Amino acid sequence: MSTKFGPVQSKPAKPWAEACERNRAPILEVLRGAFAGATRVLEIGSGTGQHAVFFAAALPHLVWQPSDRAEHLAGIAAWRDEAGLPNLLAPLALDVDGEWPVAHYDALFSANTLHIMSWASVEHFFHGAARVLRPCGVLAVYGPFSYGGRHTAESNARFDAFLRARDPLSGVRDFEAVCALAHSHGLAFCDDHALPANNRVLTWRRSGR
């Protein structure tokens, strides 16, 4: 079995992905700064639920709302139930191509999602993100990106080829194209953080109007 986070190893009653364990600490260091002024966070595409538990525990000032497609909610709920964190909410069903929450959030976070979507779904992602993000709110996205059409590492080039062979509509997204799309929805680029394994965390801030 595998998820967008990579191979999943069986654990009692819960899904588990090794990649979540490897990347969570570097991502947390970025989120500490990016989400310092936030109180309510929507995680888009929570996957196994490991990130939701780790970040909610490490950032107790945040109310963390996990979400994903319906088939992933039971696994996320298993992690949440075991953790028993007061600031970690029950997961919401959210498909970026469908209905989005009516609530609004100070911050949004998404890991390893844009490259497994079609470009049309990436467009829906930013449209929905801009709608639910409060003025001056922050969006943080983790994953691999290319720059000027060039991959940052041979491993990313191989990963991109793997993705496109599996699904021609997916693939590592280009930084400039993503930023242009975000800008078209009123999201101003803030920072580009280099993380281990040739991944990045990109952040944008919604207009204050």
Would you list the SSEs in sequence order as H and E? EEHEHEHEEHEEHEHEE
- What strand line-up does the widest sheet have? 5-4-3-6-7-11-10
Fraction of residues in H or I helices: 25-40%
How many angstroms separate the termini? 45 Å
Helix segment tally: 6
Find the structural class using helix and strand composition. alpha/beta
Radius of gyration: 16 Å
Q: Per the principal axes of the C-alpha atoms, what is the gross shape?
A: globular
How many strand segments?
11
The parts where pLDDT drops under 50 for at least 5 residues are none
The profile of the biggest β sheet is: 7 strands, mixed
Mean pLDDT: 93
Strand content: 25-35%
